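cron nightly-structures :: item 1 of 1
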Amino acid sequence: MNINPEFFAGFALFSTAGEVLDTTSNLVRPDPPNLLQQPESKESFVYAIESDKMVLGRTYNAPRLVIPARKAIRDTDGQLLGIMTGALKIQADSGHFAHAAVLGPHNRITILRTRDRYIQYATNGELIPDFFVQPLPETQYRQLMQALQQGQREPEHPSERQATITFRWDTNSDREHVRGVALYNPRYEFWLLSEVEEGYLINQFLKTATLYIALAAAFLISMFYLFRFIDREQQHRRQQLQYQADHDTLTGLPNRNFLLEAFDQWQTGKQNFSQLFIDLDHFKGINDHFGHSIGDQILVELARRFEQALREDTLLVRHGGDEFVLLIATHADSTAAEERVGRQIKETLHKSALCLITQP
């Protein structure tokens, strides 16, 4: 009592007839009870008389809510002298029971006696009202024992200590189905149960699963757009590199590499086509007299005008320097098509020359 003043309510010595012989000073009452005449104490008192071990009695108000612990006192010959009783306080402002830790109102801690199905202690953070008044209904008790038996496993080795049992059962109450863990105490013959409402577990699982699914979806979507962006950038880069490899940097026309690939395609895809070679005479003189920058401007302008003058079924290629190659689809009459395109090229060159002459 000195070590745990908030845990022990006091001690009392009873005769074998259930009468009080002596008590600690804090338990002195004008009308001490007879334990053999009280329904809530009679069974455990008789059991303590018949047993050599300490016995836990039913929880009851005496007048405060306590769990009695009783032990038979015998002489050296084994003759019964009396019953020593200690009372463990439950409704203390501090101490072990007052600070029982639970996960929340969805979690219930229960001590269930196996001898009479009475609940020794029950809390979900607050003491469950009147938990000690009636025993657990026999039907519920059988269902619980069946659930515990199904959750029990055989030890792998005879010396192995019984592990905690996991179980699930229908409480037939507003808690509905619960899941929990249980541990049996053979010395005091009770089950220690920790139960969590299954509905709460499902809600918690759904919240957690929804969060992880949302995070996973966000991650996958971000990865999808990231990889698509990278792929597009790579495709764009490849297209740029391919364009640079296949086109002339000055005029933007297809170059000799492009011509080699296109010529094979024209041979397989066009029944009739002609190849014309365009060479600008005396172009070196322009570069020598006016400079390469002027010559480059002339080539760019000629390339633009050639493209405007030619039809869609033609391919104009800058072969190098002042040389151009032209592929034209001739269909049936190749000579007429070649003459027509030749005239267009000469007209374009003539107009370009006049334009250059008239420039200041």
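cron nightly-structures :: done
The helical segments are 39-50, 138-151, 198-246, 256-269, 283-290, 292-309, 334-358.
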